[in-house]
Amino acid sequence: MSEGVSSLPWAAAPAAGNAIGLYAKWTPALDAKIEAAQQHLRNACAAHRDGLVQSSSLGVEDMVITDLISRAGLNVHIATLDTGKLHAETLALLPRIKDRYGLAVEVFKPVAEAVIQFVRKEGEEAMYKSIELRKACCGVRKMEPLSRMLAGRTAWITGLRREQSGARGDVAFDEDDGNGRRKISPLADWTWAEVWAYVQKYEVPYNPLHDQFMPSIGCAPCTRAIAVGEDFRAGRWWWEDSTKECGLHAKS
């Protein structure tokens, strides 16, 4: 496999166009939404200062938020989770963020011994065996590192949007996360078309797997392309009949 290229079979075929061409559409409301999103970010910075972090999945929504932070000149710490199972294309965004914005992203990884023990007991493909084991894998690779990312923080910024799924239909711009922190979602009311219109206008770097019909990108074993008409998050844990959540944004 060449460096920076996914081994996924559907990613090997050329995309029919790209995500910008497929989805971007500037709406009359978008100028106001951009200003409102930056104001949410300014308010969060004023209220939480060093207690604020952008928890970036490196998905397109979070890349837009990083761009908004940079354009507003805000001093916001940015962090991400490297589960050990991410696509090469996802990790390749880290140096691009540094080059484009001059911002270093802090990377939180799972505890190596915990991963070794889990794989030794349950196997490399435990996520396919049951929802419980998939969630246990998420617990080791995502939830524990997230707890370290958020330790000592009073608020975190996410790329959640109401349009992403029914489970996220009531996402607020600023809400309690159930653990005594504020969760800030400045793009809560943005549409998919508006996200891509912003990317197009401001030339925001993004994961090329979005061009391969992957609107929601997680760990490589747990992400596939979606077909026309499928839900936004249908490509996540597609073998399950579940709410398509790993626990990072579960309601308490």
UniProtKB/TrEMBL annotation:
Protein name: Adenosine 5'-phosphosulfate reductase
Active site, UniProt feature: 246
Top EC group: oxidoreductase
InterPro entries: APS_reductase (IPR011798), PAPS/APS_Rdtase (IPR004511), PAPS_reduct_dom (IPR002500), Rossmann-like_a/b/a_fold (IPR014729)
Cofactor note: Binds 1 [4Fe-4S] cluster per subunit.
EC number: 1.8.4.10
Keywords: Cytoplasm, Iron, Iron-sulfur, Metal-binding, Oxidoreductase
